[in-house]
Every structure is written in C-alpha cells, then in structure tokens.
Amino acid sequence: MSTVLITGASSGIGHRVAELLAPHHRVVGAARRLDRLPAGVEPLALDLADSASIAAAAEDLLARVGRVDVLINCAGYGEFAPVELTSPESVARQLQVNLVGLADLTARVLPGMRAAGAGRIVMVSSVAAAFSSPMGAWYHAGKAALEAVTDALRVEVAPFGIQVAVVQPGPVRTDWHERALGELVSRTAGTPYARMGEEVAAYHAKAAETPLMSEVDDVARAVVRAATETSPRTHYPVGRGSRMAMLMGRIVPKKTFDAMTRKQFGLGTRG
C-alpha cells in the first residue's frame, strides 16, 4: 500500500482528495486544523508559514512512515487586495505558504523517493499562473512561481524515477475564495480603491454562478488521476475554459490583455 502525504488536507480540495484516496492508500493529512481531517486519514501537524513546523513535521512523518511514495501539495491561499494596500508581512506569508513552504517540504521527502528509485509529486497550481487580475497580484505571483519551480523540479528528479505533475484548475467554489472577496470590500472601503474593490468582488460573485466555476470534486478527481495514473501528464487543466485562459494569458499582447481585463471587470480608466 502506497503512503500518500497531502498538504492542506483539512479543507477544500485537499480534504476531498484525502477522502478519495484514504480507502485505497495509507494517507497522511498535513494541516493546522487536525480535527477537520477526513476519517481514515492519519494526522500530521503542519503550518507552512512556520519553517520550524515544516522541519518538525517532516521529521515526525519520516520516522513514522519511512518514506513517502506520493506527495500531493494542495495547501494554499490568497488575499484579495491592491498591491499598494498589501503589507510586506502579508506578501511574505502568502509566498511562504504558497511557494517556499511547499518547496521546503518537498525537498525533505525527496531523499526517500530517490533512494527508492520511484515517487510521485503533484502540485495544485491554477490557471492564475498564466496571467494576473486586479486585486490578486500575490496569489498570481505565488502560482506562477510554483509552476516555474515545478518545471525545473520535474527535469531534475526524472533521472531518479520520480514523476512530477501539475493540476491547473480555473476558478473553484471554495470557502476561502468567498471569505477573501468579503475581506476585499472591507479592506478597500474608504480608500482610493473602494470602487474598484466593489467591482472586482461583484465580478467574482457573478462569475461564481457561471459554468466557468469548477466544483471541488472536479478538481480533486483530477488530482487523484495525476497522483495514480501509471503515466501521468505533466499538466492537468481543470474546468471549462481553463486551457484557453492559460493560452490567452501567455500569447495576447499585454496592452490588449489589460484592456480586456478592464472590460471584463467593469473597470474604467481616468480621463
């Protein structure tokens, strides 16, 4: 039976992935809120914002299971806010959780995979890696950097029999997304960005009712495929329009893309 480590296993995509894999594998769920893990999942205390917690979790894990066969990095979050109103502390925390902490944990399980000559790493990214939208700069930055790191990692570990895949969902209906949008309105209220904050929040609220929004289960099943297929693809786009969104973000001229973004979000320009 394979040992699977899932970060962010207490909620959202990670929680559902753990539920799907637990009947067939030894699943260790890493999270801050261990009381929220699914039944049948072994708990592992982990706070990706704390480097000491990452080191302690890895030591505990490897002493307990010996080595990890599959690592699934589902953990991540974002805050909606203008760049100007985002504190350096908030930036550092988001990048630590969404990028640096995940890379640290990944590096700590790689020696066991190399020794075994096999292993699988799945990173849950986003179509947000291909472009940026207003009020989401640091979430986009973290996902773009995560994919850059993952592309390098995939080539580096291939000679050791380790496979690496990325799952790229479009918008997903999750609790943190709704909370973050509510906080956006309150954070921008009374600032020069108040109207823009309301418009961006309204756009996302409306988009949540369209077919472009994926359900957690859709993404979780793609993650399971990436983790268990004999010959995994390098990338798994999920959701209607996700492939097109990534392509447009990379090939459309930036001024054109900016104009499209302003129109999409209902944002005007001065003058």
Number of domains: 1
**Beta-strand percent range:** 5-15%
* Average pLDDT over all residues: 90
Number of strands: 7
Number of helices: 9
Reported CATH architecture: 3-Layer(aba) Sandwich
Poorly predicted runs of 5 or more residues: none
Order of helices and strands: EHEEHEHEHEHHHEHH
The helicity comes to 40-55%
User: What is the CA-based Rg, rounded?
Assistant: 19 Å
Biggest sheet: strand arrangement: 3-2-1-4-5-6-7
What is the name of the CATH superfamily?
Answer: NAD(P)-binding Rossmann-like Domain
By secondary-structure content and strand pairing, the structural class works out as: alpha/beta
Quick rundown:
The protein is an alpha/beta fold. Helix content is about 50%, strand content about 15%. The chain has one domain: Rossmann fold, CATH 3.40.50.720.
Characterization of the model:
The chain is α/β, with parallel strands linked by helices. It has a single domain, classed as 3-Layer(aba) Sandwich (Rossmann fold), CATH 3.40.50. It is built from 9 helices and 7 strands, in the order E-H-E-E-H-E-H-E-H-E-H-H-H-E-H-H. The chain has helices at residues 12-21, 51-65, 88-116, 137-157, 175-188, 194-207, 216-228, 242-251, 254-265, and strands at residues 3-7, 26-31, 42-45, 70-73, 119-124, 162-169, 235-238. Strand 1 (3-7), helix 1 (12-21) and strand 2 form a beta-alpha-beta unit. Helix 1 packs across helix 7. The chain is globular and about 55 Å long. The chain starts with a strand and ends in a 6-residue tail after the last helix.
